Amino acid sequence: MPTFAIVLIVLAAITVGFFILVYFLGKRTEKKQAEQDELIEQNAQYFPMLIIDKKMMHLKESGLPEEAISQVPWYGKASKIPIVKAKVGPKIMTLIADPKVYDIIPIKKEVKAKVAGLYIVGVKGLHGKIEAPEKKKKGIRAWAMRTLEKNKDVLKENKESKDKKKK
Question: Is 0.85 surpassed by the pTM of this model?
């Protein structure tokens, strides 16, 4: 058997082993996530609050209590998280929002938020409905389509003026 075939067999075995490892680690992570979601749902309460500001920030810049920051693992401290500043009663608090909920949280409006500790799990409108803003598509093709839509009127006018000049 040539050495090339042996190398291919070894690489295939390593690849299959890697995918099996990722599969089982994913299963374990899903179980942990389900347990955490269940715990959050049990401890969540609704609070009326006025949303002052929301930003994606690094953990150290967020203004969260030092106890909360120290509980985050080392690999989570480098990423940006959704931070919401809100007035809850007479206090101004810094809270962490669920990434699913972050986009629909309105700024400068009063909402009824489902909060578990420092974590915003859900949001309801206190006065009226909350509508999710339209997500802006990213990429070159999306940019070209937006630009084309903006310039459609200009292109029509140019075409009409050329047609008038021909007549």
Answer: no
